Known about the structure:
By secondary structure, the protein is α+β, with helices and mostly antiparallel strands. The chain has helices at 53-71, 75-81, 155-168, and strands at 6-7, 10-11, 33-36, 83-94, 104-113, 117-126, 132-144, 149-150.
Amino acid sequence: MSDPHISLGRVSTPLENTPAQAWDANAPIAAPLQLHSPTVLPQWVDYNGHMSESCFLLVFGDSSDVFFRFVGIDESYRDAGGHSLYTVQTQIHHIREASEGDPLRLTLQVLDVDDKRVHIFHSMFNATSGELLATGEQMLVHVDMAAGRAASMPAWLLGHMQAIHAAHAVLPRPAQAGAAIGIRRK
């Protein structure tokens, strides 16, 4: 079976070359967003018989890509202005296993936003049982690709991010958000 993430010998996302959605300022914003629902593919399963740790990141990355298209970022945005969102930090909490064929449901919550950064939080559930399988927290930075550094988002994009953040302000902060990694000593 071919992997939908490998195209012409390079890694891609399932939505590559899919245009961004048109933003509807009057549409309600789900809290949290539910934009991505893949199924665990055979090539995502490792020698232990469950979804490999790297594939959790792959699925969270795909969820981010769906989110980018939701807010108006696609290849034409990148090509026209030389800007994109880059992930600068990720933390994944593995809670339960996922097996081949399991349907997944991902949610995405915008925890914070400023003119250059977006702090997002993914939750991955088994779509059948509803069990939380993993969470992924990401800090995204809007980048001027030619300059190789952070750049302010255009007003329209910042407005979309702020609208989502405002809609998500009613949600509780996830327990795993901002958690430090380390060995707890007594």
